[in-house]
Each structure stands twice: as structure tokens, then as C-alpha cells.
Design the sequence.
């Protein structure tokens, strides 16, 4: 983990905002590079005046979309065979695909937004989304909104921690609670929107 932290700090120090983009691209491409450290260090740079909070969060979200789109296309092109042949390289098994399939059957494309707010799940959701051919437009919208919330929250937390930004990992529980609250609000919105669509369809 120490080497991973050094790698992340190195690319962001050298490349600035592009380093955030690269880091989040890698993380969202199903390679377990911790976004807590990527956006955490970005938040520290905001603290010392070398970056701005919203720009760091936006670049992180764009990097997330890029990596997620790559995995979506890979899944859509390779199908279930891609999981059997290459799943082990990104720690994605057929069992995880089945769980993702149940999630998509229950929530539809909105599951992408839900997953983006869940640590551990967000890294791998794009591959099954492609395999299951979730509508690309919805995939992009929900990925961006979820990723922007996630990136902003992490950067903001690290900004508040200042010199102690690496302690962000100790506040993961609080971040998860906030994410659950956001998620509940999102689910309520989804139900209200669905009911309106159903009512409009009946009328």
C-alpha cells in the first residue's frame, strides 16, 4: 500500500490535474487503485492552494467516466466470455456478474448510480453494465453524477483534514454513512420519477 500511495502522489505531483484523471481512469477500469488516496491527495493540494476543489472533483469524475466507458465497451464487446477469459485479471468473477445482474434487474440503469456511491462496488460495475447492455446514455449520466459526488466528497474531506489528509482512510465509515444518505435520496427520486412515468403512460 505504501508503494501505491507513493505512485499516486508521484503522478499527481508531476501531472497535476492530468494525474488525477489518469489515477481515476485506472481505478474505474477495474484496477484496484484507491480513489480515497487519489482524491485525498488532490484535496491536500487544494488545502495548500495548488488546486481548486471543484476542478479537482470534475477532473476526477471525467477520469472515472473514461475508465468506466472503456470497461463498458469491453464488456459489451466481449460479453460473458470476457469474464471467463479476463475476469481474473481484474478480480471479477462470474459470481460477481450474477450479483450485478440481479442488481440491474431490480434497479435498471439506476444501479450504476447506486454502485458509484458504494466503495468496493463502484470499481467493477462498468464491466457487467456493458455485458448486460445497459443503455449507454443512462450509463454515462449516472456514472458522471455518482462519480462527481464521490470525488468531491473525498477531496473535500481531505481538504478539511489538511496536513493530515492521509487519515481520510480512518473516516471511511463517516463517508459511507453520508453516501448511504445520498443513496436513499437518490432512490426516493427514482421511485418518484418512475411513478410519474407510469402515471403519464396510463394517461
Sequence:
Amino acid at each position: 500500500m505504501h508503494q501505491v500511495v507513493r505512485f499516486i502522489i508521484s503522478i499527481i505531483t508531476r501531472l497535476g490535474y492530468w494525474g488525477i484523471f489518469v489515477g481515476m481512469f485506472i481505478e474505474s477500469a477495474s484496477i484496484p487503485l484507491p480513489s480515497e488516496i487519489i482524491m485525498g491527495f488532490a484535496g491536500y493540494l487544494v488545502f495548500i492552494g495548488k488546486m481548486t476543489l471543484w476542478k479537482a472533483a470534475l477532473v476526477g469524475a471525467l477520469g472515472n467516466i473514461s475508465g468506466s466507458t472503456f470497461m463498458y465497451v469491453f464488456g459489451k464487446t466481449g460479453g460473458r466470455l470476457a469474464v471467463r477469459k479476463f475476469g481474473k485479471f481484474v478480480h471479477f468473477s462470474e459470481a460477481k456478474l450474477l450479483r450485478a445482474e440481479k442488481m440491474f434487474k431490480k434497479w435498471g440503469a439506476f444501479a450504476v448510480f447506486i454502485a458509484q456511491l458504494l466503495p468496493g462496488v463502484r470499481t467493477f460495475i462498468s464491466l457487467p453494465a456493458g455485458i448486460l447492455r445497459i443503455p449507454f446514455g443512462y450509463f454515462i449520466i449516472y456514472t458522471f453524477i455518482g462519480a462527481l459526488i464521490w470525488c468531491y466528497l473525498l477531496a473535500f474531506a481531505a481538504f478539511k483534514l489538511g496536513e493530515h489528509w492521509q487519515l481520510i482512510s480512518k473516516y471511511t465509515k463517516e463517508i459511507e454513512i453520508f453516501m448511504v444518505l445520498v443513496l436513499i435520496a437518490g432512490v426516493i427520486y427514482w421511485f418518484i420519477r418512475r411513478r410519474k412515468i407510469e402515471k403519464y403512460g396510463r394517461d
Q: What stands out?
A: Residues 83 and 94 are 6 Å apart (CA to CA). The chain has nine helices and no strands. The mean pLDDT is 82.
